[in-house]
């Protein structure tokens, strides 16, 4: 199976950037420790508070395992009220 790349763009609600960053750092640490995580990098725009996650997973199965983890599910619950806009792209390298 081929590697799967996730690019997630998260725009926090007003005055929620710090809380969102805390949650992103928590899920980042746990996700990097997962089997099948090739890379998991968090970026922040220098123009505003937008965050961009760039993840690479060994294959589709490891990505599915990641989404099923407790830390990922908690991250989604904890950030539901912090994010104004979320765009997620599931990609493959060409």
Automatic annotation (TrEMBL):
Domain ABM: 4-91
Molecular function in Gene Ontology: monooxygenase activity
Domain of life: Bacteria
Keyword set, alphabetical order: Monooxygenase, Oxidoreductase
Gene3D superfamilies named in the record: 3.30.70.100
A Pfam family it matches: ABM
SUPFAM superfamilies xrefs: Dimeric alpha+beta barrel
The protein, known as: Antibiotic biosynthesis monooxygenase
């Amino acid at each position: 199976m081929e590697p799967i790349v996730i690019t997630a763009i998260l725009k926090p609600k007003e005055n929620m950037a710090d809380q969102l960053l805390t949650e992103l750092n928590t899920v980042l640490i746990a996700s990097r420790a997962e089997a099948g995580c090739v890379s998991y990098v968090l970026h922040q725009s220098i123009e505003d508070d937008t965050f961009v996650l760039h993840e690479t997973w060994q294959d589709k199965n490891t990505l599915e395992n990641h989404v099923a983890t407790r830390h990922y599910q908690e991250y989604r619950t904890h950030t539901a009220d912090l994010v104004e806009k979320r765009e997620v792209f599931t990609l493959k390298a060409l």
